[in-house]
Design a protein that fits this description.
This protein is globular. Helix 3 links the parallel strand 4 and strand 5. It contains 11 helices and 10 strands. With about 325 residues, it is an alpha/beta fold.
Length: about 325
């Protein structure tokens, strides 16, 4: 890279290849500005299009992994930035750590919980630990397929209502969410893909945001490194198990993106264009009214008496197909 300069500032020595390829290289500081601005724009865009005000706080789903810790640190930075520029203090940010998504508390979870708690103290953010057992009275012997993601969504929605906040922040970069999209389409969960992988989603008065959705996994990893974000290394089992379908899909996307760099964002843009009530041979989703029965997973209205009541509550037939396959 000798002789080249950063294509943004034209001053510093470049260190990072941009999305546009090897001819456009970032220096570290310009890359940090780029990545944080992508995140900030995503939060502000969602706030402008919905009824939630920019000063409102919210709950942050944090597991201790790199993506969620980057989200936490950047939200703290954004809060400080907006308070300085608008002179309007934010309401509380509350970190929610959910224990027992595998229906048992592991040593890794205990370590991650303590780590996240200590980091919240340093960042002056409220911390709340929630156990899955608090919501599910009759836990099955082992988690159902993909129940972790669906359970987390249900728990955080109820926590937001309990804490009287209207924003829920999730981690998840573009590569991970594109992989989840393909996974759910492949296994028949088409009615869930937009709720789980969209940049933002409104359910009643609740605004769900995924502000890292416009960053590739490599960009998010570099941002965490250069912003010096601490995190807990996740379990090695899911990262190396060749039977992990989501891991196979993710590796495929990363591999094909080497030569076709727009693949991941094309998948996400295609998903965004599909009307949310078209569910590929699934019943139409209808937002549940306050007096109606709603699915505990997708929060849509249950319109038939023929439903199963699982441990997490009444679940519509579409969600049962995904949970039990």
């Amino acid at each position: 890279m000798s002789g080249q300069l950063c294509f943004k500032c034209h001053v510093s020595e470049p260190a990072i290849i941009s999305r546009e390829g090897k001819k456009k290289l970032y220096c570290v500081e310009c890359f940090k500005k780029f990545s944080f601005n992508v995140f900030r724009t995503s939060v502000q865009r969602a706030t402008l299009t919905d009824t939630v005000e920019a000063k409102e706080g919210g709950i942050i789903a944090v597991s201790g992994g790199r993506s969620s810790m980057l989200l936490l640190d950047w939200l703290c930075e954004l809060r400080e930035y907006q308070e300085k520029t608008t002179h309007t203090p934010w309401e509380d940010l509350i970190v929610v750590f959910v224990k027992g998504l595998d229906y048992e508390t592991t040593a890794w979870e205990n370590e991650a919980c303590d780590f996240v708690h200590d980091h919240c103290v340093k960042r002056h953010v409220k911390f709340r630990m929630v156990s899955v057992a608090e919501y599910l009275s009759d836990l099955p012997a082992k988690p159902l397929v993909e129940e972790r993601i669906l359970l987390l969504r249900m728990i955080l929605a109820k926590e937001a209502k309990l804490l009287q906040v209207r924003r829920v922040f999730y981690g998840g970069d573009a590569t991970s969410l594109a992989g989840l999209t393909l996974y759910y389409l492949a296994c028949g969960g088409a009615h869930l893909y937009w709720r789980i992988t969209s940049e933002h989603d409104v359910v009643g008065d609740l605004l769900i945001l995924r502000p890292l959705r416009n960053l590739l996994s490599s960009e998010a990893a570099l941002a965490a490194h250069f912003f010096q974000v601490p995190y807990v290394q996740t379990s090695a089992v899911s990262r190396t198990d060749p039977r992990n379908v989501k891991r196979v899909i993710r590796n495929f996307l990363c591999g094909i993106s080497v030569n076709f760099k727009s693949t991941i964002f094309n998948i996400l843009r295609t998903v965004d264009k599909i009307p949310h009530n078209e569910t590929l041979d699934r019943p139409l989703l209808h937002p549940a009214k306050s007096e109606s029965r709603s699915c505990a997973v997708c929060l849509s209205e249950i319109r038939t008496e023929n439903v199963d009541k699982l441990a997490l509550g009444e679940v519509c037939k579409s969600c049962q197909l995904v949970l039990t396959m």
